[in-house]
Amino acid sequence: MTGCVTDLRRAAIRSTAKDYALKATTRSWTSAVFFAALAMLYGMLVHADHHSDSDSATGAPTVLITGANRGLGLEFARQYAADGWHVIGTARSPGKANELNALSVEVAQLDVANQTSVDALAESLAGRPIDLLINNAGIFPRVNKIEEINLDDYSRTIAVNTLGPVRVTRALLANLRLGKRKTIVNITSRLGSIALNDSGSFYGYRESKAALNIFTKTLAIELHPEGFTCLTIHPGWVKTDMGGANASLTPEESIRGMRAVIQELGPADTGTYWSYSGEKVPW
Asked: Span 165-170, mean pLDDT?
């Protein structure tokens, strides 16, 4: 009888051991699945936050500047980078943008007059917040008489100076909606002011900037309910390839002034026209 009891106890112990082993295995498998899922979720969050609104590693806001390979655009990139912003500077030929590449900025290819190029940029930035968009890229043909107008050049001026900002803004609107600052700045000129046009000349360029101004105003009205700030800013007469050596301002002075204007203004000022000096410009 004692042997039978012992055998029964052994059988019970083996059964219990098997139950514990099964439970332990189940717990281990469940734990493994849980931690694997947790690791996967963490990886997704890290990927999503890699280019977050504040650039998680630095806490910096993001600015995208078109035409950043020279002139005003390059100085914008230099100053914002020096202030700790994450800068995305665009150029038609990034490989040739030596001064831009020398800065601590992200360089991207963009031809604002080419829809395929604009779409490619938008695709590469999908899901990344942009706090500030500066539509800076532009050209400045000097045509003083109507007989001198070359309609192909005229159309090109409109395509770059007016349609360019429209294309880029539309393509990156989703990114701007993800940003905290939601600011769009279009670099214009006092030559685009109808009220200040008392000297004529500059066919094509004036029209392109006047159209850019009204685009900015219209966009501001549409996006105002979302808390956007849409501004058009005259940079002054600046010593760049476009402005020439006789201009009165250095790029550093112009950009410093425009940055102060951008920093000072907010949603309540959307749809307004300013000079780098902080003065309003009449439409």
From this structure: 98
